[in-house]
Amino acid sequence: MSSTLFRTKKVEQSLLDTEEPEHALKKSLSALDLTVFGVGVIIGTGIFVLTGTVAKNNAGPATALAFVAAGVACALAALCYAEFASTVPVAGSAYTFSYASLGELPAWIIGWDLVLEFALGTAVVAVGWSGYIQSLMENAGWTMPAGLGSREGADTFGFDILAAALVLVLTAILVVGMKLSARITSVVVAIKVTVVLVVIIAGAFLIEGKNYDPFIPKEKPVEAGSSLDSPLIQLMFGWAPSNFGVMGIFTAASVVFFAFIGFDVVATAAEETKNPQRDMPRGILGSLLICTTLYVLVSIVVTGMQHYSQLSVDAPLADAFKATGHPWFAGFISFGAAVGLTTVCMILLLGQTRVFFAMSRDGLLPRFFSHVHPRFKTPHRPTILLGVIIAVLAGFTPLTELAALVNIGTLFAFVVVAIGVIILRKSRPDLPRAFRTPWVPVIPILSVCASLWLMINLPAETWVRFAIWMAAGFLVYFLYGRTHSRLARGEASGEQPSAGGGTA
After folding, report:
1. Distance from C-alpha of 51 to C-alpha of 233, rounded to nearest angstrom
2. How much is the pLDDT for 227?
């Protein structure tokens, strides 16, 4: 049985699968599109909220160093993703990479993990977007009818219609085509990057040097009513640890890591890229570098504008401008955050549908979902199915407790991809690699260590929920996936499966 559980799918076979007309995605993306996708999904709620939380409760002005630490951990993983995505330019990201290097069961585990990660991430962001929109509506004198607003903290029946509507609209856009998605993303990304640059440039003139003293606070108790009571922070994590000093910086890094979640989604679009060997590394590494630079600059500016102990935890950037006598910027920032979250939601949904599509094309999930739309050449069936499920999830469910799973799921994927790079270098040294991760195995090992360290900083409850989801995944695999996979059918007949899903 162990041989069947760890059977690998040849890279050549994965590439052949992308040429089958009924199961082939349209190639339309460039390096610029990929970079825009990366920036679009990375810059979201994290930068507009987390800066105040970790500055006040963990790192003070040294929050910039926490963003650097989290960025380095992501960069180590990004180097591994870049090699895989350029070598195996097939939809599915970490799932596809694992199938080629670690085997079927590990691939199923990581695919199952990614489906949860992207689903929860999409729903969490949709609910956060709904909150921003409702806030802007209230500023204009409009109020959502009772029972149709945010479900967070509600103790009565209701449905967050804005969150659900956003997911359904984005689902329709993704069905129509990737190029349309890229164009919409480009416009929205331009808006929110402009907002971030305005914060940096305008805020730089309001910095006071005394606010940087001390740069690394030694200790400070958490005041009542701080981030532990912040609905938005609990919505994203379900937790908010507190400690200072050097360890506070690293604890802060495990929190702000949420702000980087999503760059790996770029890898799921490898199959839809015109020149993946050249453009995937550029898109992954370029978007991460841009966002890390912006994060560091924003954290330096906001902690210089207002003393870290006085920063708000719900809207630190907007409230810092209010505190310095510039309230106009507060509304501008809130608008930028609301607009920016739409691309985060869309690209996370895109990533999930591509992983689901790849798993169904391999037979681990029903092959019904592996057919592309005859006109748009998009995986319309899984897109519609998952879009409806997530819309319902976002509408009915306050996600405070579940959202921390997004962090652990992403870090787990990082670990698997890094290990996969080492294994594939040993098992398939002959493969042409347009991009090679430097200093293998040092970089992948450092990536594994960094990801595991951040995972350790997550609360025990998150580990328990993650274990439950993984147990459910094992059950589905052994009841369905193991016997229905195309590799299993090929081995059963003594032949290798063809690109069309039958036997050669």
Report:
1. 11
2. 40
